[in-house]
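Folds vary. Our protein:
___
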Amino acid sequence: MVKDLNAICQKLRAWVLWEAGHRTAKSLLRRGKIPIRSGERYVAEFRNGGNWKRKAYPQRIKPKRSPRVI
């Protein structure tokens, strides 16, 4: 387990606590100082098989450059 929970991001902190058996938002609030609403969101996500990593998004399509208007 990670020694200093304040040195890592909030979602990873929630994941570490989730893996340690703390499965409720109140438990995440008490043990990891994670806000209750964020804790509820993380618990719902972890229950559905999510993990601590960010969701992968497709790369943004960049518009073609138009000639400068003088």
User: Anything to note?
Assistant: The radius of gyration is 19 Å. Residues 5-47 form one domain. The helical segments are 10-19, 25-32, 36-47. The chain has a mean pLDDT of 85.
